[in-house]
Amino acid sequence: xxxxxxxxxxxxxxxxxxxxxxxxRDDPALRGRPVIVAWKGNRSVVCxxxxxxxxxxxxxxxxxxxxxxxxxxxxxxxxxxSRYRAVSQGVREIxxxxxxxxxxxxxxxxxxxxxxxxxxxxxxxxxxxxxxQQIREELNLTASAGVAPNKFLAKIASDWKKPDxxxxxxxxxxxxxxxxxPVYRIPGVGKVTEKRMExxxxxxxxxxxxxxxxxxxxxxxxxxxxxxxxxxxxxxNPVVPDRPTKSISAEDTFKRDLPLEETEPMIRRLAEKVxxxxxxxxxxxxTVVLKLKTKDFSILTRSHTATAPPSSCEELVxxxxxxxxxVDAANQLYRLVGVGLHNFQEAEDTSSxxxxxxxxxxxx
Length: 364
Prior knowledge:
This protein is of the alpha+beta class. It folds into three domains: 7-168, Alpha-Beta Plaits; 175-230, 5' to 3' exonuclease, C-terminal subdomain (DNA polymerase, domain 1), CATH 1.10.150; 247-352, Dna Ligase, domain 1. It is 34% helix and 22% strand. The protein has 13 helices and twelve strands. The protein starts with 9 loop residues before the first strand and ends in an 18-residue tail after the last strand. Residues 349-364 have low confidence and may be disordered.
C-alpha cells in the first residue's frame, strides 16, 4: 500500500533561454534576433539558443556547425560564464526573500518549497507571481514557473507555458492533468524505456496507472515502484537546499554483446551526453570513470583523476577511450558501457576553464 505524501507547496522556477537572454539584455543589438551562445567551430556545442533561433530547430547541446546550417543568419556569441553566474546569484537573492528552502538544479533553474514563506503571501501561486515580477523588474529577464504539490509536478508545470509563463496544478487536478500525458514526460523515461513501455501497451500516464505494481516491478525492477507512484502524482522527495552534485553519468545496454574494440561509438556518444549534462553545473569534475558490464554481468570500472578537469568534450572522449585501453579484453564480450564524471569541486579559477562549452581551438 502506497502511503499518501505530505502536503507541500512547491515552485519550480526556470529562467527562459537564460544565457541567450542575458546576452540579449546586455546588448540591445541582439534583441529580437536569433542568438546562439557558443563558439563557432567543429568541436563546439550550443550552450543556449534564443527563442528566435529555436524557431529554426536550434537546441542546446547541438553541434554548433549543425546549428549554423539550420539558422545561417544566427549571431554566435561566445559564452561568458562569470557573467551568467553573477546574474544567477541575483536570481537566488530574490528567491531568498521568500524561502530558505531552495534547491538549485543549475544556474538557470531551482525548486523552492514555499509551504511556509517569509513574505506571508497567502498562496504559492502569489509567491511564484511575485518572484517572476521581481526578476523582470530588477534583472530585466523573464522566468517561467510551475506550482504544484511536489517537485515532479512542479517541474512539468514550469515547462507548460514557456516562455514567460506560469502554470499551476492544484492537488485536486493532479489525476486529470496526468492521465493524458505521454509517458516520456516522466523523469527517467527515455526513448529506450518508452519503447519498452509500448511493447506492454503503455503510451500515456493513464495507461501506466492502470497497471499493478507487481507488473511494473517485473518489467522495470525498482524503477517500477517509482513509476507506480509518479503515475499517481506521488513524489515524496523534499526540496534539499544546496545539495552538491556527486556525479553525472550515462550508460547504455547494447542490443547484442560486443567485443571491446567495437564500443568506441557508444563511448563517444555517452561522453558527449555526460558533457552536455555537466555544462550547467557550477562545480567542475576532476575524475572520469568508465564502466563496463560483461556478458556474464561482471562489472569493471576504470577511472582517471587529473589535476585539471577535462577542458572540452573531445578531451573527455579521449580520456574515456584511454581508460578502455586499461581493460584486459581477452575473448570477452560486453553488454553495457557507461561514462561518468565524479569528484565535483568548486572551480578555483573560473577564468581558466571554459566550463562546459568547449572552445574549438582548445587542444586536448
